[in-house]
């Protein structure tokens, strides 16, 4: 048995939009199930996102801390953002987010891991990139709302792994990216896909 996710689409016999927000919408699909049953499935339609695990030459991970209102928490995260620029490649979006949120550019990019953050309730997909060969840059990007005074910290990768495993970091792309980077480092990052690898 091949252990990989594969495309599949069951018949939708009806679909209703329940809510349209600034970024997301909520729909109810009536889906044809096995044995000719139907069931309603509510889910969030999301444009997707990119995130960046920036790793410096001292094996430190760049983390930012941002307020997340739904969780009522200040969360340690990777630089990230929604896919909201028409025609922009995923890696270009990731590079933009790294520069805007943290003030860094990277010369070397890899695809680190692809996530479906909560597939039972959302179609959101996040590609997490590994960024290396970093340079600090000045940016005129104006931070607003939750991004005002957002701290940037460099954390040793091994310490970040420990914090993720001890339940001190909860953001899903951050946890996945940290653990994936640690696993990939065992092979010297040789098994990673290129930055422009196709997305399933």
* Gyration radius over CA: 18 Å
Question: Fraction of residues in helices?
Answer: 10-25%
Give a quick account of the main beta sheet: strands, pairing sense, barrel closure. 5 strands, mixed
Shape descriptor reads globular
Distance between the termini: 19 Å
Distinct helical segment count: 3
Report the average pLDDT across residues.
Answer: 93
List the helices and strands in order: EEEEEEEHEEEHHE
Number of strands: 11
Unreliable segments of 5+ consecutive residues:
none
Q: Structural class given helices, strands, pairing?
A: alpha+beta
Strand order of the largest sheet: 7-4-9-8-11
Which percent range describes the beta-strand content?
Answer: 35-45%
How would you summarize the topology of this molecule?
Blueprint: E1 12-20, E2 25-32, E3 38-45, E4 49-54, E5 60-68, E6 73-77, E7 80-82, H1 90-102, E8 104-116, E9 125-136, E10 152-156, H2 157-165, H3 172-185, E11 193-194
Parallel strand pairs: 4-9
Antiparallel strand pairs: 1-2, 2-3, 4-7, 5-6, 5-10, 8-9, 8-11
Helix pairs in contact: 2-3
Quickly list its features.
40% strand, three-stranded antiparallel β-sheet, 200 residues, five-stranded mixed β-sheet, alpha+beta, 11 strands, 18% helix, single chain, 3 helices
Structural features, described:
The protein has 200 residues and is an alpha+beta fold. It contains 3 helices and 11 strands; from the N terminus they run βββββββαβββααβ. The chain has helices at residues 90-102, 157-165, 172-185; strands spanning 12-20, 25-32, 38-45, 49-54, 60-68, 73-77, 80-82, 104-116, 125-136, 152-156, 193-194. The strands form 3 sheets. It has a 5-stranded mixed sheet with strand order 7-4-9-8-11. It has a 3-stranded antiparallel sheet with strand order 1-2-3, with no helix packed on it. It has a 3-stranded antiparallel sheet with strand order 6-5-10. Strand 2 (25-32) and strand 3 (38-45) form a beta hairpin. It is globular, with a radius of gyration of 18 Å. The protein starts with 11 loop residues before the first strand and ends in a 6-residue tail after the last strand. 24% of the residues are buried. The model has no long low-confidence stretch (mean pLDDT 93).
């Amino acid at each position: 048995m091949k252990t990989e996710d594969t495309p599949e689409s069951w018949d939708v016999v009806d679909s209703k939009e329940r809510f349209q927000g600034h970024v997301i919408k909520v729909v109810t699909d009536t889906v044809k199930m096995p044995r000719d049953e139907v069931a309603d499935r509510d889910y969030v339609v999301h444009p997707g996102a990119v995130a960046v695990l920036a790793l410096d030459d001292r094996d430190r991970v760049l983390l930012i801390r941002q307020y997340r209102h739904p969780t009522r928490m200040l969360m340690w995260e990777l630089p990230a953002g929604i896919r909201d620029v028409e025609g922009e490649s995923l890696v270009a979006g990731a590079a933009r987010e790294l520069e805007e949120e943290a003030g860094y550019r990277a010369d070397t990019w890899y695809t680190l891991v692809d996530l479906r953050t909560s597939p039972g309730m959302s179609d959101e997909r996040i590609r997490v990139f590994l960024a290396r060969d970093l340079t600090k840059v000045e940016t005129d990007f104006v931070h607003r709302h939750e991004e005002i005074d957002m701290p940037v910290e460099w954390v040793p990768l091994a310490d970040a792994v420990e914090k993720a495993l001890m339940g001190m970091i909860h953001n899903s792309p951050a946890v996945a990216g940290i653990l994936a980077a640690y696993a990939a480092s065992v092979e010297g990052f040789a098994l990673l896909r290129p930055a422009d690898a196709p997305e399933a």
